[in-house]
Amino acid sequence: MFNQGDFWDKAKSGELDVVLQVDKPGPDHQPPGTRGQILEYRDSDAHTIAIVHQYLRTDGTLGGVGKPDPIALVKNSRQ
Predict the structure, then answer these.
(1) Is position 44 within any domain?
(2) Has residue 79 been placed in a domain?
(3) 3-state secondary structure at position 10
């Protein structure tokens, strides 16, 4: 559902707001300086659409499989 909704692409393009909720050092199996992050993707009305986890490396790339890992999707009853 996360991929079908193109939420990551919408977040990257600015269509969704990205709000950093957690930012801490990444695990030892990631390169030094990597940050473990939890982000909320919100629509223009500030409604949370999705919550994701990612490993942000110092070069700006994402660790793991190279894209955010969805934790939760919030169903909007207006849709």
Answers:
(1) yes
(2) no
(3) helix
